[in-house]
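Standup notes, structure subgroup. Blocker cleared on the S-adenosyl-L-homocysteine input:
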Amino acid sequence: MVLMTKRDLKSMDTEELELFLGEMGEPKFRAKQIFDWLHQKQVDSFEEMTNLSKSLREKLAEQARLSGVEMVKKLVSQVDGTRKYLFALENGSIIESVLMKYEYGNTVCISTQAGCRMGCQFCASTLDGVERSLTAGEMLSQVYAIQKDCGERIHGVVLMGSGEPLDNYENVLKFLRLINDEKGQNMGQRHITLSTCGLVEKMMDLAEEELQITLAVSLHASNDEIRNQIMPISKAYPMEKLLDACKYYADRTKRRITFEYALMQGVNDSDACAKELAKRLRQKHILCHVNLIPVNDVKERDFVKSSEERVKRFAAVLQENGIETTVRRRLGSDIDAACGQLRRGYLKKEG
Ligand code: SAH
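Run returned:
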């Protein structure tokens, strides 16, 4: 495919743009102009870059490309303003993104891959495996497109849509640096959360990047026996190893880790589980807190969400045992289930 062999300018930082333009025989300052169009003004085509000559715009269109996303569906919640989007990538793959409106600002949940290959039992995104990893430009485009659509500044990003961010490490890192660039969206790193199912080596690499982002780790169990049943990745990285990596990350970055814990009735939601979890986290002295999420129903799987009472009790046991705990509020309850359900429903209908 000719289209994919052209270099993607949206995924480049200013230095890479300078090199590319140098190869084209263009002066350096063009790189800054193009970066400004892409990441400050956030246009989608060379055509719109009106301070470049027409002949340069044509030359760019011949020799380069701009990765992007195209909106194919949008649902707006009447309850809380949450918006869920389906975007198509250039190759036709479909991804899902969500706008969440919080008092402190607008946050977007983006996908890092179309599908996922991690195989978590309770997650809809992984049912058909991974189609492909997204480029940095495609990740940025989700934020830019939503910002344009809602007409308000996007304040924060969570990498919690489909895909495993650390399974697409280089592109995700590039995305983090680009969205943080002061000449672009200039999003503060502290307003960015990266969620992982726990790829230990990559977590160790990430610790060395000197980023101020929040790391969320999908734990969902208090021991290996339970975790092995619901998360295949657990067999590669037992919990002791994972928690050691978390400890290293928190010590190295001085950033508090969020442990995600989806409560599933009869699977991982007993008082004994809460006590076991608290004990393990305390023993490791990890700077952390636990975020409880009543599991979202996935039609193809038969996990059932824990009752409200059970969630409260689980939280109370954790807190009594010295672990800071929050319960995630459910947003957009009137516009289809969360976590890959919208994408899956669409693919089934179209397919
Ligand atoms: N692959 C990464 C990020 C994407 S999933 C990760 O595993 O963290 C984002 C979060 O949604 C993870 O915590 C994941 O475990 C959780 N999740 C997936 N399916 C869910 C469901 N049905 N109910 C509740 N949380 C779910």
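Discussed briefly. The chain has a mean pLDDT of 94.
Next: hand off to the docking folks.
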